[in-house]
Amino acid sequence: MTATDPIVSVRDLRKTYGSLTALDGVSFDIQRGETFALLGPNGAGKSTTIEILEGYRDRTSGAALVLGTDPGKGGLAWKARLGIVLQSSGESGSVTVREQLSHFASFYPHPRSVDEVIAAVGLEAKAKTLIRNLSGGQRRRVDVALGVIGRPELLFLDEPTTGFDPEARHQFWQLVRSLKLDGTTILLTTHYLDEAAQLSDRAGVIAGGRLIDIGAIDEIGGSEARTPLVRWVEGGQREERTTSPGAFVAALQSRLGTEVPGLEVVRPSLEDVYLGLVSRGDSASLDLVTSTGSVHRSTRSTIGSAS
Amino acid sequence: MSNTLALGGKRIGYEVRQYFRQGDTVFFTFLFPLVMLTIFATAFSESSFGTDADGNDVSAAAFYLPAMLAAGVLLSGLQNMAVDIAMEKSDGTLKRLGGSPLPVFSYFMGKIGQVFVTGLAQAAAILLLAATVFRVPLPTEPEKWLTFAWVFVLGVVTSAILGIALSSIPRSGKSATAVIIPITLVLQFISGVYLAFTQLPEWLQNIASVFPLKWMAQGMRAVFLPENFEVLEQNESWELPGVAVVTLLWLVVGLVASRLTFRWIRKDS
Fold this sequence. Notes:
The complex is a heterodimer of chains A (307) and B (269). Chain A has 307 residues and is of the alpha/beta class. Chain A has helices spanning 46-53, 76-79, 97-105, 114-120, 136-148, 166-181, 193-199, 222-226, 245-256, 270-292, 295-306; strands at 8-17, 20-30, 35-39, 61-66, 82-85, 154-158, 185-189, 202-207, 210-216, 229-233, 237-241, 264-266. Chain A folds into two domains: 8-81 and 153-221 and 272-306, Rossmann fold, CATH 3.40.50.300; 228-267. Chain A has eleven helices and twelve strands. The radius of gyration of chain A is 22 Å and the shape is globular. Residues 285-307 of chain A have low confidence and may be disordered. Chain B is an all-alpha fold. Classes of the chains: A alpha/beta (307), B mainly alpha (269). Chain A binds chain B through residues 17, 54-58, 76-77, 79-80, 82, 84, 86, 88-92, 94-95, 99, 103-104, 106-108, 130, 146, 150, and chain B through 7, 10, 14, 17-18, 21-22, 87-88, 91-93, 95-96, 98-103, 265, 267-268.
């Protein structure tokens, strides 16, 4: 593998459980140093994708390379280059935060400093507390700390900030930015679209086991979906998309000869773009259901509870 | 390989520390034989369990000491290991370790080391309790202690490996104790731990002879009961070679079963 090869390369990835299709031909690359967000509703196939790349699940078909290695066959040296923050954790935790981090640090050839990692996740005051006595959000920070302690080249973050308060989330963002500056490549899944917008360079949107869009974080969804929207009241609610909202509002004001009632200028956030994409993806899969029977619909709802 | 062994050593310390910080494991596997020895020694303090060659009475504590040592080996090894690993499988510990570069060998070295350390501490506590509180005379011959050493080591390792193999049976951590404890409890009743083995019907003795606990208990009796008790055994002999052979066979069975069944996670579940 050379410096320009992608860190993660996925081609036509498929995963079926019996007659259920969880992943239906997903392809994407992640370049070195990039932060890539995988977005999508619950049960869309995000976790299945990430767990295949982590080596936890076997794929049904398609190709996947992670750090140049087939994740289904990765050995210990390969695992030493990964950092994994799983979606859930529930260890009984009869060790302290520091003991746990020191212990895991010893697995890796070039670990980060335990004290620095504890400080980076903001757990200095809890370093000597047993993990079982931490709150849910604090435990989650231990998960993140364990994910980065081995100085990974590629870090998987599966919904890392679930249960964080806003301050902890901003702290976490700082941590991810500093990891990024160190050159860490990151694959992130999250339900917080502001988080994806803050942290990632590119995003892919998965719905119903398919990648329905992929692109730079400020371009995904296409320019149409990002065109500002002007709303006002004129004999009922009116709205219009325009690339020059300033001129439009000026024209509106001079035409009405008064302050424009109910005026709003909305620049669609990633969340608006995402919701538009996913609802279009839904109607696309509904079309699929009518032509191929109910398989896809049942897939989405069943896998939803599992992942 | 040296890294694998060094990590295994670290795992032993980590596992032992966790073990003693969990109140329920300390009670149900570590203190249990001590509690049982105390109950038996007190409840039957007026009864005689026979006399030795010099005509001295054998007390209840002396009679039950080898049984409780064997029970301790089974609990610290098989029961503790099977429940512990089943729990770790369901609470995500194994999933996390499986995603880290920790070698499987180091993980098991830590587990078996933990069983060894806690089992040894437990045996020492049982012997101390018997000798000081219940005035049980302990053997003075070095060869008896040599027998104790190999029966103990072989028993602990076999129990631990069988525990690893059994850990794949419970479908969840919550059901682990419900699945494993009845197995160890029945084994203890038919193998001469709570009931005198020689008083069981022969067919039950034959069934128990298939399993390793009967032999471990017999090996412990060879060490701690007076010589004249030997004729009371099923074949009027301690049968120490039989103790070694049957336990070793179970060790091999356990190794093969563990190798075939152990996974960091249940893939595709």
